[in-house]
Amino acid sequence: MYQDERRLDFHALGREINRKREAKGWTQEYLAQLVDRNPRSIMYFENRGQHPSLNTFYQIVTLLDIYVDQFFYPDRQNRESDCRQHIDRLLNSTNKKELTVMKATAEGLQKARETEVK
Q1: What pTM, to 2 d.p., does this model score?
Q2: Band of pLDDT at residue 116, cut at 50, 70 and 90
């Protein structure tokens, strides 16, 4: 029977949680209150690479707007530019109306590029 030996190294994600939390000006205590955990749990996630439950993981990454693909698929990160990844994260946080504006903008840029070539 095949057994996948890959394991998520939570240390890098823990450092990102710490960075994003501090960027928002939140304490470990405040984040702990938001996700119904004790502050020691947040410290363990950030500093010791302890794995939270899936529900706590989801709450934390959505509250802190952390793009997790880079941790789950590190090989893909090298294929995409930082700018494209940033745009993807921004698009993920837009509503339907804003997304329509972004689509029209991208289509307008494409048309402008096509007319420059001719």
Answers
A1: 0.62
A2: confident
CB 66 within 8 A of CB 20: yes
What phi, psi does 30 have (nearest 5°)? Answer: -65, -45
Check: CB of residue 102 under 8 Å from CB of residue 89: no
Q: What span, in angstroms and rounded, lies between the C-alpha atoms of 62 and 89?
A: 12
H, E, C per residue of 29-69? HHHHHHCCCCHHHHHHHHHHCCCCCHHHHHHHHHHCCCCCH
Give dist(CA 35, CA 66) in Å, integer: 15
Mean pLDDT taken over the chain? 86
Can you read off the two tokens belonging to residue 27? 């304490």
For range 72-90, the mean pLDDT: 70
Q: What pLDDT is attached to residue 53? A: 93
- What is the spatial distance between Cα 11 and Cα 69, in angstroms, rounded to a whole number? 15
CB 28 within 8 A of CB 39: yes
For residue 108, the Cα-to-chain-centroid distance in whole angstroms is 28
